[in-house]
Amino acid sequence: MTNTAPSTADAHSAPGAGDFAARAHQIRKEYGLGDAKVVALDGVTVGIPRGRFTAIMGPSGSGKSTLMHCMAGLDSVDSGEVYIGDTELTRLKDKQLTRLRRDKIGFIFQAFNLVPTLTALENITLPMDIAGRKADQQWLDSVIDTVGLRPRLKHRPTELSGGQQQRVACARALAARPEIIFADEPTGNLDSRSGAEVLGFLRDSVRRMGQTIVMVTHDPSAAAYADQVLFLTDGQIVDTMHGPTAERVLERMKAFETGRPAGAGVPDAQGPGVAAR
Is residue 235 a part of any domain in this protein? Predict the structure, then answer.
């Protein structure tokens, strides 16, 4: 089967830049000094295709959260280049970076980060209110209907379940129509049923609304909602899986833990993984 999705290996090439919502080229990130130095990212090159749901997985300490934070402009890189669309983050000043995060990037975190004194609707529109921008009502209505919270819009966070609060956070990330949404363990504080509801909403926002989403997760079942999974070990992307299932993702993770070659015993039906270094 021919895979027509953009190859992560070509993320840094100028002709293909338009295919990616975000890209990184040879980024490196280190923490500490001397014997305490940790290389969190070791020359990573990767592209995030537009209109796709990408999951990032790896063992603890593999660099997956660091990669997301660097690509989202929440953390700086020591070397290399990071782009959101055609804008290179590594060249921006602090105010420019803040404006870009506000206008072009959506965030969903494990903690819901809702303002307790505001209603669900007020929390959803808060970033636009702060920026002095008027919401596109048609788009906002579409987001609210997709997230399924219209009957709860006047309720405050304490009056909502955990799953409903996270769906408010998801709607808040979508409301401004960002170029890309980064989600860091978005179901980590939810029970399995609520987590499945949130993941289903994220998948639907990609398929029905054309959103681009990058999600860091440790859960193979969560990764199975994505279109593709990037696997990190030791600060490098070592494999890519298209059309993931929970079983295939779990087997791939076990292969890394036991030191077997990437993909051993679990061939990717859409081609070999891409080693993007």
Answer: yes
